[in-house]
TrEMBL record:
Residue stretches making up the Cytochrome oxidase subunit II copper A binding domain: 93-204
Gene Ontology CC terms, in alphabetical order: plasma membrane
EC number: 7.1.1.9
Protein name, as recorded: Cytochrome c oxidase subunit 2
Transmembrane residue ranges: 20-43, 64-82
Gene name of this polypeptide: coxB
Annotated source species: Draconibacterium aestuarii
């Protein structure tokens, strides 16, 4: 169930909204004011009412007014923008740290105890620091309800953002930087819980893979995982050739692969699937290019790969 009330969903909502409303109000003030002045001048000084042009001398007072007033309004907008931005720059020392991995085309979240999910679970009223790691290209993590957004730059160290969730609920999280063909697949949720519920969840070791979107069927779970990590952007399910070989009929079949300079036949089984996910450029299927797929080692667990295999078995 999604939260319909997102006001004050985080500690930055008021500052960002105030800056937005101030800038929007001043913009509308000038839009309406200038439009009214133009209409008045068009009516008052048209050719019929003023057939002979008259020379108007400059006014020092007027020059000062329309220089000083816009400057003050600009400084007012700057102040509210700066006041909303400044607190975002330094996370509290006691903030809970979560590492966010962004890759084409999904987010994954790793907690301090090693637990990893594809939904961001957070405790209410506790500062959260997200350490942002881009695995391939430029991404941008955006949580609209929290009014926070930060670019994820490959190779950039100490890249982070912080906030404090203040309302229990489920909120959208997505990538705000176009990052390739399946950019729209980089879409997930933030689930904010009471601290007691979060502590029960984070310390629950009976099902490390638990998440709000978990599905009991291994086949369905495998397909969901593949959708989340963008597999279907490069591989089809119907036999059509894309960037990589189709998944249709791949399970149990033999394929010709290039291993270094050697060409050999391999059987697509559990070991081959696991090896292809963790080291995709070791055995490249003949007719396809090397270097187009990055390793998912550390991103997918043994259970994830097991679910993926169960799904591949169904694509006869």
């Amino acid at each position: 169930m999604y939260s319909s009330e997102v006001t004050q969903a985080s500690n930055f909502v008021q500052g960002v909204d105030t800056a937005f409303l101030v800038i929007l109000g001043i913009s509308f003030l000038f839009l309406i004011g200038l439009t009214v002045v133009m209409l008045v001048f068009i009516f008052k000084y048209n050719k019929k009412r003023n057939p002979k042009a008259t020379q108007i001398e400059g006014s020092v007072k007027l020059e000062i007014i329309w220089t000083v007033v816009p400057f003050l309004l600009t400084m007012l907008m700057f102040y509210y923008g700066w006041a909303g931005w400044k607190p975002m720059q330094k996370a509290p020392k006691d903030a809970m740290e979560i590492t966010v991995y962004g890759r084409m085309w999904n987010f994954s979240f790793e907690y301090e105890n090693g637990r990893r999910t594809d939904t961001l679970f957070l405790p209410k009223d506790q500062p959260i620091k997200l350490n942002l790691v881009a695995m391939d290209v430029l991404h941008s993590l955006y949580i609209p309800a929290f009014r926070v957004k930060q670019d994820m730059v490959p190779g950039l160290e100490n890249n982070s953002m912080w906030f404090e969730p203040q309302k229990v609920g489920t909120y959208e999280l997505f990538c705000a930087e176009y990052c390739g063909l399946q950019h729209s697949y980089m879409y997930t949720y933030v689930k904010v819980m009471e601290d007691s519920d979060f502590q029960s969840w984070i310390t629950d070791t009976t099902n490390v893979a638990a998440s709000a979107t978990e599905i009991e069927s291994p086949v369905a779970t495998g397909k969901r995982i593949m959708q989340n990590i963008g597999c279907f952007a490069c591989h089809t399910e119907n036999g059509t050739k894309l960037v990589g070989p189709s998944f249709k009929g791949i399970w149990g079949a033999e394929h010709t692969v290039k291993t270094g300079k050697e060409t050999r036949q391999v059987l697509v089984d559990e070991e081959y699937i696991k090896h292809s996910i963790y080291d995709p450029n070791a055995d490249v299927v003949e007719g396809f290019s090397k270097g187009l797929m990055l390793s998912y080692e550390g991103q997918l667990s043994e259970d994830d790969i097991g679910n993926i295999i169960e799904y591949l078995k169904t694509l006869k």
